[in-house]
Amino acid sequence: MTTEVLPKDEFNQSLVDLVHPADWQNPTPDGPYHLVVIGAGTAGLVTAAGAAGLGAKVALIERHLMGGDCLNTGCVPSKALIRSGRTVAAIRDAQEQGIGIGDPDVNFAEVMQRLRRLRAGIAPNDSAPRFRDLGVDVYLGEAAFVNDTTVQVGDTILNFGKAVIATGGRAAAPPIPGLEDVAYLTNETLFSLTELPKRFGIIGGGPIGSEMAQTFARLGSEVHLIEKADRVLSREDAEASALVEASMRKDGVNLHHEVTDLKVENTSGGIRLLMGDGRDAVEVDQLLVAVGRAPNVEGLHLEAVGVEYDRNGITVNDNLRTTHKRIFACGDVCTRFKFTHAADFMARTVIRNALFMGRAKMSDLVIPWSTYTSPEVAQVGLTEHAAKEQSIPVDVFKMPLDDVDRAILDGETNGFVKVLTQKGTGKIVGATIVAAHAGDLISELTLAMTQGISLGSIANTIHPYPTQADAIRRLGDLYNRTRFTPKIQKLFKTWLNFTRPK
């Protein structure tokens, strides 16, 4: 697998020099390892650093770029690009605040150079030298199981007591007629662009597709987003999805819903997307496929150690143990929660269970997530739809942002905070936030769910005014009012009449 990162400039060279140095010398094993970790994305890095920090002898193996998707082709570069898109939108909308600026002049080459510079600046955190200095033996190369106590990297044999598979996943295009004949982008190649596509097609209205559709439209592309469902972000709260769609349309994104008969073909001027048996067609200059993932299991020789897997990933139990008792897995290679923060906490679970005979469970993790469109959509626990599907009775408390003073003052009223509680109680079982900084706001509710803090208790926690987070406290007030029943009202009235000064 090539470690080349395009375009070749000083920033990408700096990145590669850190996360896959060309002159790296693999260490020589001096005995068996407590833990051999395969894959140096977030899950592998946290596992290796955490285990080594506790005193374990650890080997970490990476065949490509340390840092995995998050650093190289995911969270880090995408958020840098989103920041540039948001700046364009802020300039465009400044007139609403009485500030005349004019249309922004987007230099896409410089936008992408900034992305590469910032990514290279973050790369030392995930670098081979840093992990060597943390006491981890870092091996660069292809790993394969020889047997249930041995992994081979090149010509080197590593013996282990326990092993962790953290090889992550990769983009996998769906079976769309004609797609194999066109040059398309995935998240793994998108951030190598140096010229802004005049016409940009995106297949998939999930988080990546929605974020990039809105961002490229803001940067100046004519964007066509194609989604087979009846809305973007179809796994999120329906009200949240509707607000995001309205914002995307405002930014100029052309949305094509319920496209089930999609075909792709080359033309003399670009790529044609034919929808609905060819009745509708658009032509684009670049095409991003933002749907479909496949686990990275090839070449590991998992059959040699009896580790089961399928097209969704490696099979693990609730303790993240594979079908081999001494081999664990964590991160994207074995879960539907394909988030950096989920990989981080799965790794912590693996350390407990692999090294200390723990019984930590994946199912005990309360995992929030956020999509960084404008507005952002953040979710933790149940949505209303999921609660209904699972026949879980809930009470729903909702605060529109157009009733929140700080949101009004910020001009960010396009959103809401919604909290689901167990029916008749203040126990929080889910929350959805749609707001400019929903990803930051969701943590308070995630903490409440993790620590068993009721919605009523949040109402008793003083929040600064004016903040958008105050919407969460006010939902606590709404919950407490539901406890003010007619019977209690009658008791209060009786007491106040009795204690009224004569």
Based on the coordinates given, report the CATH architecture of the largest domain: 3-Layer(bba) Sandwich
Estimated structural class: alpha/beta
Model regions low in confidence, pLDDT < 50 over at least 5 residues = none
For the record, give the distance between the C-alpha atoms at the N and C termini, rounded to a whole number. 89 Å
CATH overall fold name of the largest domain? FAD/NAD(P)-binding domain
Biggest sheet details: 7 strands, mixed
> Which homologous superfamily in CATH is the superfamily of the largest domain?
FAD/NAD(P)-binding domain
**Strand elements, count:** 23
Q: What is the average of the pLDDT values? A: 96
Total domain modules: 3
Number of helices: 16
Mind telling me the CATH class of the largest domain?
Alpha Beta
Shape, per Cα inertia axes: globular
Q: How much strand?
A: 15-25%
Helix content: 25-40%
Instruction: Determine Rg (CA atoms, Å).
Output: 25 Å
